[in-house]
Amino acid sequence: MVIDNHDDQPRPSADRSALSRRLFLQVSAVGVSAGLVAGCSSAGSSGRAEAEIPDWTAADIPAQHGRRVLVTGGNGYPEDDRSGLGYQDALALARAGADVTIASRNQARGEEAVRRIRADAPGSKVRFERLDLSNLTSVRAFGARMRASGQGLDMLINNAGVMGRFHRRVSVDGFERVFATNTLGHFALTALLLPVLRKGREPRVVWVSSMRMSDALPFDDLQLERNYDYAAAYDNSKLANLLLAFELERRSKASGWGVSSLASHPGVARTNLIPDGPGLNSREGWRFRMLPFLFQPAAQGALAILYAATSPQAMAGGYYGPKGFQGLRGLPGVASVPAAAQDRWSAATLWASLERLGQVSFG
Ligand SMILES: NC(=O)c1ccc[n+]([C@@H]2O[C@H](COP(=O)([O-])OP(=O)(O)OC[C@H]3O[C@@H](n4cnc5c(N)ncnc54)[C@H](OP(=O)(O)O)[C@@H]3O)[C@@H](O)[C@H]2O)c1
Fold this sequence. Notes:
alpha/beta, 8 strands, globular
């Protein structure tokens, strides 16, 4: 079913600044409720609460020389006052000496991202590989190439993501596009890369979630065939990714894979996610245009991801996000885990569904 949400159209106003102030408070309230709802906890899959993190910036990234890193969705170089989070991760890691592969669909943008990173960090090791997460054939081919290289992988950052458009779209494999890209594609990629991750040194997988996520996954309609809504599609995918982060950590520990799984979210950052997704006339797009001060620079949004990926203090099974202003912006802190993401039945059910739909296995 197709739902066009006409409520999402921008509303003209004679007093933009007063309206901006009002909306800022409303959006802030959303941030407060996202952080303080009953059942939220700062403990990730370990069940242990973590101490707050002292101020941490990109300057604190430990040397990454010799570490092989894969960042999905790393080709969003700065343009039009915005930039992809994956690009900022790749840039910071390349500056720290890592051997970085960025992987996404657009070859030209990928090559330009590589050129810019090399110009910014001369001598850095960075390359681009094509990968379409929404296409399982592409994911399998990518996984096969990585395995055939014979090398290990030390860090996988499952960063790429899309927000849905108003109308439901399906991937070449017939899955709802947001589900296919954000969740199924990353799950299949991680499963296919498990052998190379196991060859890595202190390997970590970092999943990128969001402060906004669903209260529960609709297991009877994961593809939203009956009731599509672009916001629900995105919010489901971000809950799914947090469930997967914790489930991977539990399974890795139980099976002795030696791979640490962590989760992070960037707060709210100025990227291409909204313009390329529901667009500038959506509810999100309206905030993007009218409340620019709410959206922190992508380089700052990327810090929580980088903390999870590189800090020796980041805990396997931990969840990290900005610690400033209700978790919406600022330096990395310990993020609150919503009750829905702690639900082990949902995690195991999702895992089994994705193994079946993606025809992949971590076994
Ligand atoms: N920005 C925020 O405020 C915010 C908040 C919470 C969470 N996040 C999360 O942060 C992550 C990064 O998003 P962003 O904000 O940086 O958005 P972005 O600027 O739109 O970047 C998205 C990246 O994903 C890649 N991508 C999209 N579809 C893909 C596919 N099928 N296969 C491979 N790569 C694909 C894009 O490259 P190609 O188009 O070339 O493939 C691009 O590099 C996402 O997981 C998002 O959900 C963002």
